[in-house]
Amino acid sequence: MKKLFCLAVLVCAVLLNAAVIGERADKPLAITGIDHIDEQNVLLHAYMERTKGNSYSVKPWTDTISLPPDLIEQGFRLIRRDIISKEGTFWMLDEDMEGFGYTCVLVMTLPESLGGKPVKIKMDFLASKTPDETEKLPQPQITSPVNNGVVKFRTPDYYPVFSYTGTGTVYRMLMNGHNGDEVIHRVLYAPSTRELSYKSTVDGCSYEVLVQQADNTLRWSEPARVSFKIVWGFRECTWCNGEGKVRCDRCYGSGQIYQYGTPSGYVKCETCNGTGKVECRWCWGQGWTYK
User: Under 8 Å CB-to-CB from 112, ≥6 apart: which residues?
Assistant: First the structure.
């Protein structure tokens, strides 16, 4: 009798778990309804429910929708996105709306074990046959440390900061590194250039920063661009090879010196404190010198 009871409990647990998994299954972004406002405008309703990355990781994922083929044939284009409601712990890393489709990249900010909740988002998209070009935001203005087309790194811990002004919120900054026609560096999607450092750039290479703005309905501004060339104003110290330290001349790098009368015959070198290296006097321990 006890075995039958345990078996029944096990079966119920399996069924309950299956039901929970079924309820929590991912629902990618999809169009749930279409309202025809008039001959020129259509409103599309969309919904997504995501648990991806909620249990064990916080990896981003991408959702995409497209205008139905019949609306595309009639000449409709997406011109506006409104978020009607949203739930869950997430960041919207990127969004893009290009006439016939919409793409968003999201990431869970917390796993479920730390209080994270599934993402649930309702969106409305306005599609029109006569998109109003005046809906675009004004072009932002970029102010930067570019001097005669050059950004000069003064020290290894220097980060150039590009600022920009205009209506709306700065939504993306694209940064491309070029060596001739070959793109040699990644594109950054961020309103910050902290990754633009001497470690991630190449001396003498040309770069371009592109800034666009968007408001809450994904109205876009015309892109503003600034091009420049990276020039390092310093070089790695050739005496210590950038390490900032050189071999101790007193102990010849061993960290200990001979002393008569001690049990081992050696004691710790006081000049280098037993490390075998001392501060480079050429760069004073910085590892770099000005050009």
Answer: 54, 55
Architecture of domain 141-232: Sandwich (2.60)
DSSP state of 91: E
DSSP β-bridge partners for residue 208: 176, 227
In the three-class reduction of DSSP (H, G, I as helix; E, B as strand; rest coil), residue 236 is classed as strand
Highest mean pLDDT among 31-40, 174-183, 207-216: 31-40
What's the pTM? Answer: 0.52
Q: Which fold has domain 234-291?
A: Chaperone, DNAj Protein; Chain A (2.10.230)
The pLDDT, as a whole number, for residue 189 is 39
For the record, the structure tokens of 104 come out as 């968003």
Beta-carbon contacts of 254 under 8 Å, excluding residues fewer than 6 positions away, are 269, 276
Alpha carbons 209 and 190: distance in angstroms, whole number: 11
CA distance 81 to 78: 8
Domain spans of the chain, in order of start: 27-134, 141-232, 234-291
What is residue 272's predicted lDDT score, i.e. its pLDDT?
94
- What is the bridge-based pairing of β-strands 27-36 and 41-50? antiparallel
Task: Assign 69 to helix, strand or coil.
Answer: helix
